Amino acid sequence: EKNLPTVYRVHAPPDEQKLERFARLTEALGIEFEVEDAQDPKKVSELLKGFADHPQANVLRMLLLRSLKQATYDVVNIGHFGLASKAYLHFTSPIRRYPDLLVHRGTHAVVLGKRRPPSEQEMLAEAAKRSSENERRAMDIEREVVDIYRCVFMRDRIGERYEGTVTGLVGTGAYVMLDDPFV
Predict the structure, then answer these.
(1) Please, are residues 105 and 36 in contact by the beta-carbon 8 Å criterion?
(2) Which distant-in-sequence residues (6+ apart) come within 8 Å of 44 by Cβ?
(3) CA distance 119 to 13
């Protein structure tokens, strides 16, 4: 309400091209899906629930979620699509994330009636950008570590047969999610 500079957690609406690809997949599987519906977060939530009984529910959920954009930090409030919120920011423990700390500091300054320097918006914008980059880098590292653990777990099982689901195709091969063990 006071239009003070802060760091928002923003989530843009889905990418239309990715949704079109997803629509072609659902059509091939005989599932009703309208790209326009995916512009409404509540309808996306209903669609995800609607997959529950489909034999390929896990893959469908994963592919739909991949068609959504990633949430980031920004000083420009564009809302949060996934939460269907017009304004969202993190306000948890300031130990958890740097953007939370920035929000706490800003709130503290307002409560104490401190004047905010004009350069604060630039500092917040840079902090938001770097926080988003670092978050993405941490997620990539986490995925790599999980991949290493999967390899270590399965190294003694080379040559064995398992049932699974193809979750992705790339030029170099396929991604398969095993049913048991869940790898």
Answers:
(1) no
(2) 14, 37, 38, 64, 68
(3) 30
**CA 19 to CA 7: how far, in whole Å?**
29
pLDDT score of 94: 64
Does residue 181 have a cis bond before it (omega within 30 degrees)?
Answer: yes
CB 81 within 8 A of CB 40: no
Q: Report the 3 state secondary structure along 119-166.
A: CHHHHHHHHHHHHHHHHHHHHHHHHHHHHHHHHHHHHHHCCCCCCEEE
Pairing of strands 173-178, 164-170: antiparallel
Residue 9: both structure tokens together: 């957690």
Residue range 101-160, pLDDT digits in tens: 999 999 899 899 988 888 899 999 999 999 999 999 999 999 999 999 999 999 999 999
pTM score: 0.80
- Mean pLDDT in residue range 7-15: 92
Matching residue, tokens 């080379």: 158
